[in-house]
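Example (one chain per record):
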Amino acid sequence: MNEKLAEARKRYEAVPIPAELSAQVNRSIQKSRRKRAGHRRWVRAACLAAGFCCAFVLTVTLDPVTARALEPIPILGGLVRVVTGQEYYEKDQSKDIHVTRPELVSDGAGTALTGRINEEINARIDALIAEAEERAEETYQAWNETRTDGDEFFLPVDVSVNYEVKCSSGDILSFVLYESEVRASSYTAVYTYNLDLTNGKELTLRDLLGPEWKSIANQAVKIGIYQRSKIEGNVYFNMEEFGTEFESIEDDQPFYINEAGNPVLMFEKYEIAPGYMGEQEFEIQLQTEP
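Predicted structure:
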């Protein structure tokens, strides 16, 4: 199967790229980058702005033999799905918290898998809530210690934890856990889960794209940025104007699998473009030949 994927990637890499894009990519490789401060999944917004998601599609063509080799063979059995578990509300003078916990349930042999994932999700959410509560209390205490006469109103920190199922095909289950905090500024965190239910494995970009997964993903993003930048109003970080531009995805780049079975790379606000551009998504479409 790896040989077939290698052949598919060679055909993909043979697709011509615009000359001006090649020059742009070559220049970017030679230039330095800024270091991302702090944990890459946390992004602090200087202001609250409405964002939007964009999607760019890169096609990797697989021949029918390879496509058949990729067809799942049921191993776990039963049905695994995501449902809404416990909903949690807490509100006081310093915070307003609303948590919707996703929960995996199984009616077959996938109980061990669902139990392990549920344990991880609950531990992660509990930690997020504890950290958010601590930050909210610190913010309130700082306000209380520095407020002046007549300053009687404190805007509580709004904390939200929710999830979205991206793909539930019977063989693949993909969903995203979102955590956000909003007051004078905003924080966001994204955690993705991509499960192959035929063998109980958490899928990676390498599993989907092969050994050259990072090169394929990087090319998808660079071509996507190039094409989107032609649209009036679209701006991405570049060396000349911002002193930085996209070079490569991270080893743990967040992604989900959509209903078509394609990986979609996720970039948060301010990561590769100004905040008004919103979150950015780049789909790498795996397409079989007829």
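Caption: The radius of gyration is 22 Å.
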